[in-house]
């Protein structure tokens, strides 16, 4: 039961931070998204993002910060196996399924729905 509450709170806080970045600091959505990805990557590199995911579940694993964490996690795992070249291959290996799914579902949606305008 509490995992749902904490998931809602943590996910909400991440979204509020993004909204504040756009409203108060006048950052564009692209700058806000990039900043959140970088923050997620930094927290993942420091080993702080995985405990947050264990605590908040989908509240931490669904927002864009999780993408940055995944990039760093993949790079570090492959770097241990293959050295510096693993940094590049690890980034693509761990995130390729999510990116591929986004492309496929976007394409399917474009076939079903007609844009306005």
From TrEMBL:
Per the database entry, which stretches of residues form a coiled coil?
Answer: none
Top-rank taxon, per record: Bacteria
Q: By what name is this protein known?
A: SpoVA protein
Where exactly are the transmembrane stretches of this chain?
Answer: 6-25, 32-49, 84-113
Any Pfam family from its record, for instance, is SpoVAC_SpoVAEB
Alphabetized UniProt keyword annotations: Membrane, Transmembrane, Transmembrane helix
């Amino acid at each position: 039961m509490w995992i749902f509450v904490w998931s809602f709170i943590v996910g909400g806080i991440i979204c509020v931070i993004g909204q504040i970045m756009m409203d108060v600091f006048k950052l564009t959505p692209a700058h806000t998204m990039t900043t959140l990805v970088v923050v997620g990557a930094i927290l993942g590199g420091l080993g702080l993002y995985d405990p947050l995911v264990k605590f908040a579940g989908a509240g931490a694993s669904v927002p864009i910060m999780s993408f940055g964490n995944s990039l760093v996690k993949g790079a570090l795992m492959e770097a241990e196996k293959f050295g510096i070249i693993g940094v590049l291959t690890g980034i693509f290996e761990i995130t390729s399924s999510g990116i591929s799914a986004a492309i496929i579902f976007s394409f399917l949606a474009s076939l079903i729905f007609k844009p306005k305008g």
